[in-house]
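Note to self: keep these together.
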Amino acid sequence: MVLRSRQPKTANMVSSAAADTTATRVLLSPSSEPVAFSNADKYVAWHYAMCDEIKALRSNHTWSIVPFHPSMNVVGSRWVYRIKHRVDGSIECYKACLVARGFTQ
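Structure:
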């Protein structure tokens, strides 16, 4: 997949993952799955899940950033959030996946 060279909201997530949490993020674990990025970014657990996903995409060389040209067809993306539960019902982990919006091809 090829992306254009625009700075998305998540571009600085990897570098800020080791930094202390800001006052805008809630330290409590969320109990429901968010629908939008603006809701998920309020929680530290979802923030770290998104950082892990970006790190995995970069380490696997899944996509690369290229200069934008007007003749290009840009495929958008969105975040999908899931809470993985254990058999006893407790929360195992928070998963965030960056998925391509293929219907825009």
